[in-house]
Amino acid sequence: MIGIISTAYFTVKDRPGIRTVRKYWWRNMVIQHVKYRGKFFVIATIGYGKANAAMAITYLMEEYPGLETVLNVDLALSTNDKFDTTDTVMSTKFIYRDADLTVFKDIKYGQIVHEPEAFTFNTEFVNQVKNFKLGVSDGIVGTADMLIYNSKQFKEMVDKYGQTIDVIDTEAGALAQVAKKSSVNFVAMKIMYNNALSPWDNDPLHKFKIYETANTLKYLLARLFNLLSSRYVLDFTKNTNDELEIINELFELEHDAWVKRFKKDVVSLISGMGPSLMLVDKKGIKPEAVDIVEVMKAKIEDEGPSKVILGEDEWKNAPKKWLRKLMFLQNIHVNDDELLWNKSAKYDIKTGKINSIEDVAKAIADRSQDKSSYTYDGTTVNNKHLLVACDAAISFYITHNETHEFVESRKQGSKLVANEFTKYLNELLAEVESPFEKIVVYVKVPAMGAVKIPVFVETKSKANQAIVFNGYSAKAQKDFTVVDITRNDYDPLKVGSFKVTIRLKAEN
Asked: How many CB atoms lie within 10 A of CB 436?
């Protein structure tokens, strides 16, 4: 069982494999029981301060004897210039920055009598969390029932303590002290709201920073939940950030099931052995390799907050480092009052590059002929697979042949787009020989708003032959058509028509 303690209140939306089992109040806390992909989590939303924190973790440990790990996931203030708004610091070292018991012999500033100078954790669980590499940095947390408002206060504290502190908060130190005494794993993951050494208490960007930081908290928790509930032994220490981005997306979409697309009896996913991941079975006798590549990735510029959210002056002076802009939102234009047709429905083709099926197929073909060989425990790995993640602005949309309405269903949309990919990929890759046992193409097709329809297209399991993707069904296009807006070889009765919405003015 894993416990999560936070001053932020959040809920988990019920869906297949995920549900909130129970929710109740205890003293001044909200306790939620969440069953997530077979793993049990207990979430406590608490009040600010050391007393509330100590009370919360003590209650959880007494009420839930099976509690093995506690995470403190929360917002905090940075006292290190390298950490900016929305950066995440993972801490395994904690001190009290308001504890001054130096009148006692051999007691240092920040230390409690009969306690260590700092509470540190370096367990296997800590290494496991670090292996996830969720875009976090290491740092020391200083806890006190007071905040720091300027650099003078910080300098006075550091002079007393004798070393720097990266993050300040009002809970983690107390949680760490109780966890250490109780031999419970503990890690804090703090998302930076602002730098405490700048005039943050009257910041004109306060609302926007809270919005961005809260989104980062949700993003981090989603990935933690997915990875902590995995049944596999995971080691992502040698993966690149691009590979980890793809791996995390696959966990979010299919949880552990995505691994079974390549190998059924996997117990461990290990990086750093040549391929992106080595899939290892229980006995380690028949490992298989998976190379993960990303093709046609759009370059994301590091730009400031949206002018829509901020005023012009605020936008000009805003920090340039912001988390994960939703790039597709800038390119998707759908308005019921305008024409909805195959050249204007989903993209602004004047400002953004749209890639055709041929572009995608060529990129896949280039990546599908890698002749590298890998070894595991001194033995050559016979089977290797390729996962191609296509992050381009794909030129598809899905329409109903009679009503010309857009199809937004993930299930139906995925099948239709996979069908379209299969048809053209098999034509364009018929002469391309690949050494991979299986190739899986993972594509995200934009739909309404920020929705993206995930699409998986798999080859047949045969290496060193021309690439052939499984199945193609003409029946699937009886009611719907997948339209590639860069092509013009479709039935004009289906895709050449357009829709105009006329709103009649009501009579007085």
From this structure: 25
CA 164 to chain centre: 30
Alpha carbons 103 and 113: distance in angstroms, whole number: 10
The per-residue pLDDT for 325 is 33
Which pTM does this prediction carry?
Answer: 0.75
Count of CB atoms within 10 A of residue 367's CB?
18
**Candidates 3.40.50.1980, 3.40.630.30, 3.30.300.90, 3.40.50.1580; CATH matching 2-229:** 3.40.50.1580
Q: At 352, give phi and psi (nearest 5°).
A: -125, 140
pLDDT in tens, 397-444: 677 777 766 666 677 777 887 887 887 788 888 888 889 999 999 987
Q: CA–CA separation, 337 vs 318, rounded Å?
A: 34
Quick one: DSSP state of residue 329?
Answer: G
Q: How many other C-beta atoms are found inside a 10 Å radius of the C-beta of residue 24? A: 9
Cα–chain center distance at 255: 12
CA dist list (Å): 66 to 3, 69, 213, 228, 482: 10, 9, 32, 16, 51
> How many helices (H) and strands (E) are present in the chain, helices listed first?
10, 23
d(CA 427, CA 322): 42
CA atoms within a 13 Å half-sphere pointing along the CA-CB vector of 298: 18
Q: Which residues pair with 483 in a beta bridge?
A: 397
| 164 within 8 A of 83, measured Cβ to Cβ | no
Amino acid in position 372: S
The DSSP-derived string for 114-126 is TS-SSEE---HHH
Q: Where are the domains of the chain?
A: 2-229, 241-299+342-484
DSSP 168: E
